[in-house]
Amino acid sequence: MPLPAESAVAKAYASTNLADAYAIELPAGASAQPELLARFIFAHQPPWIGRLMKVRDALVAGFGLKTARHLAALEAESGAGRLGIFRIYSTGPTEVVLGEDDKHLDFRLSVLCSGPSSTGARRRLVLSTVVHCHNRLGRFYIFLIAPFHRWVVQSSLRSAARSGWPPAAEA
Length: 171
Description:
By secondary structure, the protein is α+β, with helices and mostly antiparallel strands. It has four helices and six strands. Strands 1-6-5-4-3-2 form a six-stranded antiparallel β-sheet, sandwiched between helices. The two termini are 27 Å apart.
């Protein structure tokens, strides 16, 4: 789907090298808190994603890029302002924006929870990503990982849905 116009990431960068958004319908009674939903998604990812991240880290470490291990250590040290390996840039009642900046690219990830529409449609959770590359290394990196990124996002949403979204009472 196109980036939601109401999402902060839709206007995050003047130019983007990757922009995508995926939506999933939330069941009645599921939490509408975007940060809680983001934490849930990352906590319920399929195991193969962790293995894929280890391969990615082994490949990019030689280029001086940030690794998931390095970013996880930042969370362990401070915990404040981070959600797993991602820095929290903003939180609001309907959206949390996460991301990271590195020498080759910057990216932002949005978890946006839309309210029910006037037509009676259920709430949707939209996971959007925008990437701005700084140099050729960034553009090459995005070229290589974009297919995996899309696969990871879609699989993460399906896995979280199969696990059963956190109820509004946990919010």
